Q: What sequence folds into this?
């Protein structure tokens, strides 16, 4: 019996971007369902039954409903028996980078993305103090990643993992969001290789 395709609920924001890129990169059997945040679809009873946080992405499959983009990337990897989410000694190192990224690297990149690109869409004014603080924090933590990538071609091991997609989440918006990516040569080199992947450059359904 043919297994039903997984359903991936998304919109064109940072965290769903990771999940959609992973689905395309892994060639997973996924149906994409766009959630219109502007009209409040994420606050409907139907959507809150999928994710009580009222956020995307959400993945539905035979095993149930899963929210949080990093977990979804791991589930997608397992669905196609890929080592994008490794099950060997690399796994703990991948977890370390996922945790570090959420607490520091993408956290500050996402702040810059929100302040410079998203707030103005809703009539808000970017907060200059918040922007400067986020830039300083981003630079501080980017130095750590840049040092790591000076001697490593990917975040963990020899091949791409979910850690790479997580670390790169805000970087497609670096120029527009004034994320100071250009200052970090090794991050830039690593990110340019990611940009060669069509799944990363164009993660969303047409």
A:
């Amino acid at each position: 019996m043919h297994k039903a395709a997984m359903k991936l609920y998304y919109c064109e924001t940072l965290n769903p971007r990771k999940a959609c890129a992973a689905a395309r990169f892994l060639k997973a059997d996924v149906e994409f369902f766009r959630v219109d945040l502007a009209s409040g679809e994420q606050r409907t009873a139907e959507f809150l039954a999928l994710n009580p946080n009222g956020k995307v992405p959400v993945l539905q499959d035979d095993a149930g409903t899963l929210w949080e983009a990093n977990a979804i990337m791991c589930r997608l990897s397992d669905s196609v028996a890929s080592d994008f989410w490794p099950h060997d000694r690399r796994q703990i190192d991948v977890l370390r980078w996922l945790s570090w990224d959420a607490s520091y690297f993408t956290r500050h990149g996402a702040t810059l993305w929100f302040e410079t690109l998203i707030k103005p869409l809703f009539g808000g004014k970017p907060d200059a103090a918040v922007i400067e603080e986020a830039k300083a924090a981003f630079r501080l933590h980017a130095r750590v990643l840049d040092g790591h990538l000076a001697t490593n071609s990917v975040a963990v091991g020899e091949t791409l993992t979910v850690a790479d997609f997580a670390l790169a989440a805000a970087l497609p918006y670096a120029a527009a969001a004034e994320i100071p990516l250009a200052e970090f040569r090794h991050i830039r080199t690593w990110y340019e290789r990611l940009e060669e992947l069509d799944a990363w450059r164009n993660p969303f359904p047409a």
